[in-house]
Amino acid sequence: MSDAASSRVVANRAPKRSIARKLAFLVTIAVMTSAMSMGCVLMWQVTRRYAETKSQSLFASAHVFASAAAQGVAARDQAAVYQAIKAIGRIPGLIYARVENNRGQLLAAMGGATQLDGDLRIKDGETLSISPFTVLSSRSIEVDVPIVNGGVNVGRFFLVADTNDLVSKLVDALEGTAIGAVVALAIGLLVTSRLQKSFTRPVLQLSETIWRIRRNHDYGDRVEAKSNDEVGLLIDGFNAMLEELEARDKSLDSHRRNLEREVNDRTRDLQDAKDVAENANAAKSDFLATMSHEIRTPMNGVMVMAELLAASDLPERQRRYAEVISKSGQSLLAIINDILDFSKIESGKLELERIALNPAELAEDVTSLFAARAREKDLDLIAYVSPATPRFISGDPIRINQIICNLVNNALKFTETGSVILKVGPDPKRPTRIRFAVTDTGIGIRAHKLKDIFSAFTQADQSTTRRFGGTGLGLAISKKLIDAMEGEIEVKSVYGRGSTFSFSIPSGAAEHADPWPRARQPGMTAVVAVKGEATRATLLRYLSEAGYEAAPANDGAAFTADVMIADPESVKDARRTEGGYLLCLATFGDPAAHRLVHDGLADAALSRPLRRSEIFKLLRRIRAGKKLEDTPDRRAARVEAPPRHEGLRVLVADDTAINREVAIETLQQLGAVVETAENGAEAIASVERQTFDVVLMDVSMPEVDGFEATRRIRDAEKAAGRHRLPIVAVTAHVVGDAADAWRKAGMDGVLYKPYTIQSLGECLSKFAPAEAVAAEGPVEQPSPVVGAPRDVASFATPLVNEEKLRELKLLSEDGPTPFLLRVLGLYLDHAPRSVAEMRRALAQQDVKAVGRAAHALKSMSLNIGVDRVVSIAEDIERRAAAPTPGITAEDLDNLDAVMGETLIIIRRFGPPGESGMQQSDQQAAALAKAG
Ligand code: ADP
Fold this sequence. Notes:
Layout: H1 3-12, H2 19-74, H3 78-85, E1 94-101, E2 106-110, E3 120-122, H4 132-137, E4 140-149, E5 152-162, H5 164-216, H6 230-311, H7 316-346, E6 355-357, H8 359-369, H9 371-376, E7 380-385, E8 393-395, H10 397-413, E9 419-426, E10 433-440, H11 462-468, H12 474-484, E11 488-494, E12 498-506, E13 525-529, H13 533-545, E14 549-552, E15 563-566, E16 581-586, H14 592-598, E17 604-607, H15 612-624, H16 634-638, E18 649-653, H17 657-669, E19 673-677, H18 680-689, E20 694-698, H19 706-720, E21 727-731, H20 741-744, E22 749-752, H21 757-767, H22 802-807, E23 811-812, E24 815-816, H23 818-843, H24 847-863, H25 867-881, H26 889-908, H27 916-930
Helix pairs in contact: 1-5, 2-3, 2-5, 5-6, 6-7, 6-17, 7-12, 8-10, 10-12, 18-19, 23-24, 23-26, 24-25, 25-26
Adenosine-5'-diphosphate binds next to α10 and α12.
């Protein structure tokens, strides 16, 4: 309770009717009552005494006058009678006298007072029995005595006196009583006030103390006990109670302190234990990093050499050996990668990207990737993408890809016959999420094993390890990644029948689905005659979702329809009519379908695993009534040999001879001209002496290591005004502090050991494209756009201002210049990172850092005319600098969405047939796989 409130309570506590007043009232009543009753008694006595004395004196006077008048009465001498009673007139109080004879005849009378009937008449000797009431109500008293003369009764004498003097006597008496009463009252009140003080003061004190204690919670407070009466007892009791309370408080307090001490002790113990565990964990991570370095470096030699060996002119058997070495190396690497990945996630070093990605493409890329595996085991593998799937979601493509790959890999691993289908679509339970589900017809998992399946190093059946291999880490890693994405993974399985692993993740700033290509008119028919349960079902679904009446063909029976999809073997059963289309679905790489198209037996060829975009393209053309040209199979181009780098000058700095050997051999295979340096100092000298297009710099070298060498080269470049030489770190360090050191040292990228010819080739394309000529100048160009104020991005602002790019001669009829391509490549790499940085900063509420990242994004975007991103970034930068910055996650979602669209357009600038996206994704995937 606050002080104000409690004092209000105390104020309210002042008694409404105080004891003092009550006492005074009672005393007054008592005194008045007793005074009144005393007054009555007094009046009674005064009246009685008055009646007595009055009547006695009246009788005495009457006897005197009766004897004086006796002779006159006996002689019937009226004059003598008068004479005898004449003196009566002079006696005060007597108002009437009468003398009667024996026979009651009036002889003489004096005075003239009228006597009422009720007035008091007293006979001689009756005086004692007179009631004071009669006296009070009567205005006069009459007495009569016999007149005796010589022993003979001769008449009667009557005498009347008034009672007026009684009133004054009564008044006197009452006055006395009143004075007495007043004195008594005064004394009474005085006593009361004394009493009240000695009684109520301690009580008031007590109540004040109670309220003070309530306010201050100070149970050490006491009431002073002065009296040893009942109040004193009460106060003593109260003080005793306070003492008990205080004692209890103290024991509670000490108990609490004990508990606190205990909790502190335990917390410290726990903290110590945690520190020990964390240190152990850090040591484990470091150990893993070191181990990986130690294993990867020699493995680099093994794998590259085996690769080269397998590619060389060798007898068949030896080549097989070389291939086995290479394959074993790859699986060993996969296991090491799993363990590294897991420990990286465990140690909290996982960072997720959030960029726009196309879920359908992502899923179908995975099925393409695993097509060969599926074919080897004769399994039917396909992805089904539901029509409601958003075109873009925001997420981490590499990690999502990793999860799907793991699920599909498992499904293929644990399935001997049947099919594996990967379904993509909005989560039916939560529409803001996207769900990927992999269903197989494999061995299934026993119900009691299901709950542990996502724990690390868990395998449903130990015998599977022997049969199928694996570490039991894949699902644990997937689960951790999905948890980090705030998603959920679940599994349903029937032992011996198959399993479904599905996960759903928030789709973020999702973009709406592509419109489905519709059949030209309702009632058009489609027949599917392909083998493979999953592919058939998926095709039927796609066709009926497009508005066709779709049905499977009966085995071996002839069929006809508006659209027919058939295996090469079933094409013979199709009865093509005028206007009907026949699409032949063949295994990837099987020329049969193309031959059939060539021979005019089919209209178009499709290859397994079928991609939704391919069938859509054909359905659109069918709707438009166009001829279906054979779509060249682009996936063939994707697995081509690594890009060549004829004449590219590469400096390899590495202290290990075998590594240099491997690098020289590999680079020469790619057409590069190679120089080597054995340590950092030599590398610096070579760079001074000669011109290179790129440097591959091993980071751990004796004396001058790769970081130091790079720093010195960068300093020298700056001093001499030379352009920046691309330097790529070559390292096997993937976790720990070293993972990011290359960036700090001023290197342009990193190539993880062990590398393959493919990844080395891609690395060279990225950091030193063959077209790039050294004289092209720095990448960071001054902004070509003058900073006129712009409004926040509206849809009128172009995503990419191609006109501007043309003006700057960066874009021509032949497409983008190599320079633009390189800058775009950099942009693809850097822009999403800026957005990720903004998110990180916003999460930490570091608005300044958000502003900085927005500025960085703006300036890199200005160079290549991505105007809408520029506007949004500029707006965020401006708002970050405002006195009350109000930047929300929604702003960043918006930026993400626009960025996603922009990146798609940028990727389209890439040379046809080899879209920039796949290129960079593959690189990124390769890098991520390696670390
Ligand atoms: P790994 O496959 O490397 O052993 P995972 O974590 O990916 O590790 O899988 C753990 C275990 O779960 C597997 O060993 C297997 O017993 C079981 N499992 C995973 N996927 C399937 C599947 N599709 N069908 C049957 N069992 C599976």
